[in-house]
Write a structure and sequence with these properties.
The protein has twelve helices and 21 strands. With 404 residues, it is an alpha+beta fold. Bound molecules: coenzyme A.
Length: 404
C-alpha cells in the first residue's frame, strides 16, 4: 500500500514549472492552456512552492502541488503581507493517501519559518480546509438584478467612459485609492493586473470581450454583455465583475449605467461584497436576488503576531484556550487584550479552534455566530460577546475581488 511516506516533498525547480502547471490543470479537470500558464507562472515564486513527487518511480512524476503568493493586504485597521495559498492539488491517481495533509502541514511550517503570520486561500470545496485551521473569513454575494431596477434615490449617470479591453494603466490608479480601505483587497503588481484583465475566448463564455465603465480617476466596473433575443424581444445579459469606486456616489453611477444598458434584460453579478450598497439602493429589493457564499479562508499561522496586526472595535481582555493541531506553536492559553497577546496560566474564558479566530480575523464572520453553531465554548459568561464585538469591524466588510 502506498502512503505519504514514499512521497517526496520539495519546492519546484524553475525547469519543472511547465510540468507542474500541467499537473495542476489535470487535477482541476482542465486542459493545459498556455495563456493561463504564462499568467500563473508570472505570479509564481518557485521557492514558495511545494511539489509532491512519487518516490516509487524515482520521483519523476508530480502527484501534488501547492504554493503561496505574497499578498500585501488590507486588514481591519492595519495591513500585512499574507501568504495567499494557491495551486493546491493532488493527482486523481493519488487521492486519499494523505498527500494533501502532508502538503498543508509542510506549507504551514514554511509560512511560519518565513515570517508569515496569516495565510488565506480560496477553497474549491468548503469542506476541505477547516481541518487545516482555515476558517471562512469573508463572504460574498452573487446573483441577478432586473434591468432598469429603480433606485430609491434617483441617480444621474453623468459623464462616464465605456472602454473596450481596458488597460491596467487606466484602472490601477483608481484601484490603488480604494485598496487600502477594504479588508481583503491587496496591492496589485502589473502581473496581477494582467491576471485580472486576462480576456481570451475561453473565459468569455459566449459574451463580449471585457469592458469597463469608467469615471476618470474615481471609479470603474468591469463587465461583459451577451446579446440574446427571445420570443419577447431583447433578452441580453450583463455580467458584472469587479466594481471599484472611491465614493458611494461614484458607485451608484456605475451601477445605474450597468442597470440601464440597452437591449439587456438582467444584470448578473458575481462575488460582490456583502455590504454592497446596491442591496440598499434598489427601491424594490425583490428586483435583486443574491446568494451568499464563503470566499476567503483565513488561517492564523503565528497567532500572537497575527492578532496584533489588526485593530479591534472594542476593548477586550480574555484568556483564550486555542486548539491548533496543524501549528502546535499556537496551541494553549493566551491572554489577549487587543494590544498584547501573551502566554497565560489563568483559567480560560473561551476555548476555540484556531479556525474560529481565522474566521473572525477580517471582521466578516462573527465569533458569536460561530459560537451559536457550537464551534466556540464559553466558560465565562459574556466572554463570547466581548470577543465577538472586539473582532467585528466598523469599516467596510472584507472582500476579495480576485480568486487566486
Ligand atoms: C482536494 C484534494 C487536494 C485532496 O487531496 P488528498 O491527497 O486526497 O487528501 P488527503 O488524503 O491528504 O486528505 C486529508 C484529509 O482531508 C480530507 N479531504 C480530502 N479531500 C477532501 C474533500 N474534497 N472534501 C472534504 N474532505 C477532504 C480527507 O478525508 C482527509 O481527512 P482525515 O485526515 O481526517 O482523514 C484533491 O482531491 C484534489 O486535488 N482535488 C482537485 C483540486 C482541488 O480541488 N484542489 C483544492 C484547491 S482549493
Amino acid at each position: 500500500v502506498q502512503t505519504a511516506q514514499v512521497i517526496d516533498l520539495r519546492p519546484f525547480a524553475r525547469d519543472e514549472l511547465v510540468a507542474a502547471h500541467n499537473a495542476l490543470s489535470l487535477a482541476f479537470g482542465s486542459d493545459p492552456n498556455a495563456a493561463e500558464r504564462d499568467l500563473d507562472l508570472a505570479l509564481f515564486t518557485p521557492e514558495q512552492s511545494l511539489g509532491a513527487f512519487d518516490g516509487t518511480d524515482g520521483g519523476a512524476s508530480i502527484v501534488g502541488t501547492a504554493a503561496w503568493y505574497d499578498l500585501p493586504m488590507t486588514l481591519p485597521g492595519g495591513s500585512a503581507v499574507v501568504g495567499g495559498v494557491t495551486w493546491v492539488t493532488v493527482a486523481p491517481t493519488h487521492h486519499r493517501r494523505g498527500i494533501l495533509r502532508a502538503l498543508m502541514s509542510r506549507q504551514l511550517a514554511d509560512l511560519h519559518a518565513t515570517g508569515h503570520a496569516v495565510a488565506m486561500l480560496w477553497a474549491s470545496e468548503p469542506a476541505i480546509y477547516g481541518r487545516f485551521g482555515y476558517g471562512p473569513g469573508s463572504w460574498h454575494l452573487s446573483g441577478e438584478a432586473r434591468r432598469g431596477a429603480a433606485f430609491a434615490l434617483p441617480v444621474t449617470v453623468g459623464d462616464v467612459r465605456l472602454v473596450v479591453s481596458p488597460s491596467a494603466d487606466l484602472l490601477s490608479p483608481i484601484y490603488a485609492k480604494v485598496q487600502p480601505t477594504r479588508p481583503g483587497w491587496y496591492e496589485r503588481t502589473p502581473d496581477w493586473w494582467a491576471y485580472r484583465l486576462h480576456d481570451t475566448d475561453d473565459v468569455r463564455g459566449g459574451a463580449t470581450s471585457l469592458r469597463a465603465v469608467v469615471i476618470d480617476g474615481e471609479g470603474y466596473a468591469l463587465f461583459r454583455t451577451k446579446n440574446e433575443w427571445g420570443s419577447g424581444g431583447a433578452d441580453g445579459t450583463v455580467t458584472v465583475g469587479e466594481v471599484c469606486a472611491t465614493s458611494p456616489e461614484v458607485e451608484a453611477r456605475l451601477w445605474r449605467f450597468l442597470l440601464d444598458l440597452d437591449l439587456m434584460a438582467r444584470v448578473r453579478f458575481w462575488g460582490q461584497p456583502v455590504d454592497s450598497p446596491l442591496l440598499h439602493r434598489i427601491a424594490d429589493a425583490r428586483r435583486l436576488e443574491a446568494k451568499l457564499a464563503e470566499a476567503l479562508w483565513v488561517r492564523l499561522v503565528d497567532l500572537p503576531a497575527a492578532l496584533l496586526l489588526r485593530a479591534y472595535s472594542a476593548p477586550v481582555d480574555l484568556v483564550l484556550e486555542v486548539v491548533d493541531e496543524g501549528c502546535p506553536w499556537n496551541a494553549g492559553r493566551w491572554r489577549f487584550t487587543g494590544t498584547a497577546c501573551e502566554r497565560s496560566e489563568d483559567p480560560a474564558d473561551v476555548t476555540l479552534d484556531v479556525r474560529e479566530l481565522g474566521a473572525a480575523y477580517l471582521g466578516g464572520t462573527s465569533v458569536a455566530s460561530r459560537a451559536a453553531a457550537g464551534l466556540v465554548q464559553e466558560h465565562t459568561p459574556g466572554a463570547v460577546a466581548q470577543l465577538s464585538l472586539a473582532m467585528s469591524w466598523h469599516g467596510r466588510a472584507p472582500h476579495s475581488p480576485i480568486v487566486f
